[in-house]
Amino acid sequence: MSVPISPLARFAVLACLFSLAGCREIPEAPTELSALSTYLYRHFDNEDPVYLCMGMDNLRTFFADVDMDQDWQALSYEVEQLDQDDVAGIERPEDRSLEDTLPVALVTDSAFTPDQHADVIILEDQTPVEPAAPDLYDRIFVEPTDPSCFPDRGCTVIRALNDIHRKNLVVDLRMVTNKDYRWIELGEPGSGEWGALSRSWLPESSIGDSGAVALYQTYTIDLFLPVDGGAIRYMAIWPETVITGVNDETLEYTGRLGLHQIFDATEEYLEENAR
User: Which of 12, 47, 93, 221 sits in a 20 to 30 Å window from 257, CA-based?
Assistant: First the structure.
């Protein structure tokens, strides 16, 4: 099935035709979900926002025909593994192979806009929206140290550390992850339509005291795309998790379930606290 060219791409081509000074080469973004996921991870810090704009526009096009009323398991996807170029420039466990990750992805629709989700993003205590870390999920903002500028786009990039204690009947792990967020204007320049994208990673492996549980590496993208007065929320994760006695199929299901629980917890929080 062919995918229509995004509004930004049409605008860029027209600008190229009418510019007396000429035009630089317009980057092309993938149109399929798997390649888009790795593309967005790779280009998160690209100084030229057109890369992320085109990728996020194409992602919104991809999901336009998806029935979001399906059961959450029908809205899960398999995505390709990241490669070395995708993770260039981030601190990560270099002794771990990216081929050992088990990537999964999930999409949902939200009744709340990306602007409203931004109020959740800047919470220092993330436990209300992270069921897998009921006791500790502290977000420490590094740049800027006061993230209150982010929801209204007084700043368009924030960088944070997440101090997390994941705990349930099987897992008991403490870790610190990096997580950055960025606003991107979608469509044509000046459209006023903004989506948010985050990228996270684990700089050092986390191994449980007993050695039976380990999170050797993990990478995540989390997107909030404006649509119909609400948002499409999409997350893809690339973890390498080892739990004694647990097979890959169960680990993949657990990963998808964890994303679903985060989506539900966030909706419940916003139902009570949205501005």
Answer: 93
